[in-house]
From TrEMBL, chain A:
Gene: LOC111594395
GO biological-process terms attached to the record: regulation of signal transduction
Main localization (coarse): endoplasmic reticulum
Transmembrane segments: 16-35, 505-526
Name of the protein in its database record: Nicalin-1
CDD domains: M28_nicalin_like
Source organism superkingdom: Eukaryota
Keyword Transmembrane: yes
UniProt KW Endoplasmic reticulum keyword: yes
A cellular component annotation (GO) from this entry: endoplasmic reticulum membrane
Subcellular location per the Swiss-Prot or TrEMBL entry: Endoplasmic reticulum membrane
TrEMBL record, chain B:
Transmembrane segments: 171-194, 200-221
Origin: domain of life: Eukaryota
Subcellular location: Cell membrane; Endoplasmic reticulum membrane
Source organism: Drosophila hydei
Pfam short name (any one): DUF2053
Protein name: BOS complex subunit TMEM147
Family: Belongs to the TMEM147 family.
Main subcellular location of this protein, as a coarse class: membrane
Length: 558, 227
């Protein structure tokens, strides 16, 4: 067939269409290659008590605009976290089509004001339902460049008044970016469950028999509780300092409980749940609702740990707050413990003070402020130890963390204070003497192994730790109700963010115009070529005639 | 960017068609000869690949940004096979006068464009992402067309016995310059860190100079033997 073809057109008359039938699908399957691809983290999405929180949608395919130029719902805002103010965010939340935030490179190096601003924004985002898709990208040079690009072109546009031609040229020259995130709309996870774990020290049986107090269950109970934060603004594990303190306390007091001579006259119980402030302390709620729960009988007091260490230091005073729902009366267990803690904290570190904060439970509020309120509502004497004064402090839910060394240093002091005050309380010791010294001294080694724990269900780490030291270890699972779920999580995978550099349609028209000019030029050049050849032929003829034996140099000069 | 952008890029390859149409090849019905030349191009490239894969150490770990002088020389020395391929085309494909050379050069260049740029254009220029590289590559193909036409001429001159003895070394030098263009031109562009647009202009200039020299020599010989 090809042999007879004298021209391009002849081929198409033959069997070539059949080949095309085979090759065209292959060509179509060869999909266009992808552009700049970034890993992004989707903002969390969860429901508590029928209220929606977090970003409620996930698909973006929009034009990227900077913080200063977006104006419709067809724009996706691409900005640095540091540049976004609360007002900006509220406007974007209501009107824009999507939001992609680049996290700063290093949060620790920022100034305190900026840190505060970030924390405020983070809290603002966490406490409301956001109808637009929101994604977080970690800091990369490429993304930084793109953000600079979209920001700078707008500044040029605004500052200069241009003629129509100038505007046209500018729009031809402008770089546009198209953003796509192919996240599927995440479905509610019907199997979402919250785990909580309990355990207690059972006093040495020999000690019990000696004193004829029967079995250990009659002893007054001191309960220590903490929450594990399993998510923040993104689906990552924030710093879980409280649970690290709890685990460290278990380890420290296990030594005292196993020794016959130091068996206390108290039961020490521990309770750790996967649900913190964001989930309205669902774990402790369910745990308290369990009927005939032997673990909570004859309660001396409940000590809740919440944000015992600030994960991101800002210029806040070094104070440990003791939050209660009603002011403790004199001679009650809580006021005794408060005095002990105050004197011990004052002795251990000079600049640390302990302050009591009283806040009534607001039953009209759908969300509780502190975990001890759950226990107080059940008439258990309870209080929370926290470094945050205000229940609405953004530090309680932040994802950002400081250097580990700094955190550990603070944690050692906290553990020391709590452990010593508890020991003083249980053994009725004078708070002025050192209790944990020598081989029992509290150091970083007590805390460091526990800083990495993430969730109760993960790797069974916590369960193994509880079972190693404690008795009556039980894990509870809380599943959302089918009809009226108390809480709901959503399945989500972190999708890929693609940013394509695009040009406006006018650019392609312009390009076509330029190319046709070029082609016309080439056309005339080819038409002119025979003339050029003739010219060269005559000139070489002359040179051949002039020099019988022309040297290459002569030719070259031509 | 879009199919329209792909169309733009393809439009930049139209000079190939112009060359075919207005050089008189279409009147000779030389289409099939061009296809044959293209087949010989494919054959040559396959041989080259075999040699490269068998005898040359390819270090895939080196960054694409760096210019490895020694490796480039080795690679270019294999490009001598290109000259053999041209010689094969010229000896096998019958043709008369100018059209023979244009057939060889055009067939070779077209096959190269389709095989080495086709997939890239189809996959890349049609994609959402805009990049100047596709327009640049298409412009560069135009330069390569001139380049291959002059190479074909030089090879033809090299194989002629009736070429003036004084011109023989010049033809050899020009051939060597063409072959090792990958080393000296790319190296120079890399050292001077010239941008892609200027690089294309420099390449076009070099191709024009080589083409002009070969045209001169060819005109001289053509006058002598009377075609």
């Amino acid at each position: 067939m090809l042999n007879e073809a004298d021209n391009l057109a002849d081929i198409f008359r033959g069997g070539l269409p059949y080949f095309l039938i085979i090759t065209l699908p292959i060509l179509i399957i060869c999909s266009p290659c992808l552009a700049s691809e970034f890993e992004v983290m989707a903002m969390t999405k969860y429901d508590v008590n029928g209220e929606n929180f977090g970003s409620r949608s996930s698909v973006i395919s929009l034009e990227a605009k900077s913080l200063y130029t977006w104006n419709t719902g067809r724009h996706c805002v691409l900005a640095r976290l540091l540049d976004i103010s609360l007002n900006d965010f509220n406007r974007i939340r209501q009107k824009a089509g999507g939001l992609i935030i680049m996290l700063p490179d290093d949060v620790q190096t920022l100034s305190n004001e900026v840190k505060d601003q970030i924390l405020m924004l983070e809290q603002q985002m966490l406490t409301q339902s956001i109808p637009i898709p929101v994604y977080f990208a970690s800091f990369t040079k490429t993304l930084e460049h793109i953000i600079n690009d979209i920001t700078s072109t707008t500044i040029d546009n605004n500052t200069q008044d241009k003629t129509a031609l100038g505007q046209l040229l500018l729009s031809v020259n402008a770089n546009g970016y198209h953003i796509t995130v192919d996240g599927q709309n995440s479905a509610a996870n019907k199997n979402s469950k919250l785990a909580s774990i309990q355990g207690e020290f059972v006093p040495n049986q020999y000690a019990m028999q000696k004193e004829n107090t029967g079995d250990g269950n009659n002893l007054p109970l001191i309960l220590i509780t903490a929450n594990l934060k399993t998510f923040g603004i993104i689906n990552k594990y924030p710093l879980n300092a409280d649970s690290a303190v709890l685990m460290a306390l278990i380890e420290i007091f296990s030594k005292l409980h196993t020794t016959l001579s130091t068996t206390p006259k108290y039961r020490l119980g521990f309770f750790l749940s996967d649900s913190g402030l964001l989930l309205n302390f669902q774990g402790s709620k369910k745990w308290l609702e369990i009927d005939d729960n032997l673990a909570i009988q004859n309660v001396e007091f409940v000590l809740c740990l919440d944000t015992i260490t600030q994960s991101l230091t800002s210029n806040q005073p070094n104070v440990l707050y003791m939050h209660v729902s009603k002011p403790p009366k004199e001679k009650t267990s809580i006021s005794n413990y408060f005095k002990l803690l105050k004197s011990i904290a004052g002795r251990n570190s000079a600049n640390l003070t302990v302050e009591g904060v009283h806040k009534k439970i607001n039953l009209a509020d759908s969300k509780l402020s502190w975990e001890h309120e759950r226990f107080s509502m059940k008439r258990f004497p309870a209080f929370t130890l926290s470094s945050a004064r205000n229940p609405t402090s953004p530090l309680r839910t932040t994802m950002f963390k400081d250097k580990e060394s700094h955190i550990v240093e603070q944690l050692v002091t906290s553990v020391k204070n709590i452990a010593e005050s508890l020991a003083c309380y249980m053994y009725k010791i004078d708070p002025l003497s050192d209790i944990f010294k020598g081989h029992a001294a509290i150091t970083e080694d007590n805390i460091l192994p526990y800083l990495g724990i993430k969730a109760i269900l993960q790797n069974n780490d916590i369960k193994d730790g509880f079972e190693k030291y404690l008795k009556n270890v039980k894990v509870f699972y809380d599943k959302p109700d089918e009809r009226e779920p108390d809480f709901m999580f959503y399945n989500g995978i972190n999708p890929k963010l693609n940013i394509y550099r695009v040009k406006p349609a006018i650019f392609d028209l312009f390009l076509t115009f330029a190319i046709s000019l070029y082609l016309v030029g080439i056309y005339f050049a080819i038409q002119f070529f025979p003339k050029l050849y003739g010219l060269i032929s005559t000139s070489t003829n002359i040179s051949i005639r002039c020099f019988i034996k022309p040297s290459p140099n002569v030719l070259k000069r031509k | 960017m879009t199919l329209y952008h792909f169309g733009n890029c393809v439009a930049l390859l139209l000079p190939y068609y112009f060359t075919y149409k207005y050089s008189g090849l279409s009147e000779y019905g030389a289409f099939w000869k061009c296809v044959q030349a293209g087949c010989i191009y494919i054959f040559t490239q396959l041989c080259k690949m075999l040699v490269l894969a068998t005898f040359f150490y390819s270090d895939s770990s080196t960054n694409s940004g760096e210019f490895n002088f020694f490796a480039e020389i080795l690679r270019c020395s294999v490009d001598v096979a290109d000259l053999l391929g041209f010689a094969l085309i010229l000896s096998r494909i019958p043709g008369k006068g100018h059209s023979k050379l244009i057939t060889a050069g055009l067939g070779w260049a077209t096959a190269e464009v389709i095989l080495s740029r086709g997939i890239m254009l189809w996959v890349g220029a049609r994609g959402t992402e805009f990049s100047w590289i596709y327009i640049q590559k298409c412009l560069e193909s135009n330069v390569l067309l001139v380049q291959h036409l002059s190479t074909a001429t030089l090879i033809w001159l090299f194989t002629r016995h009736d070429l003036n003895k004084a011109l023989k070394p010049l033809v050899s030098i020009l051939l060597a310059v063409t072959i090792f263009k990958g080393v000296w031109l790319e190296g120079l562009l890399h050292i001077l860190s010239i941008g892609p647009w200027t690089a294309i202009a420099v390449k076009a200039l070099v191709a024009a100079i080589i083409g002009f020299c070969s045209l001169n020599i060819y005109a001289c010989l053509a006058q002598q033997i009377g075609i």
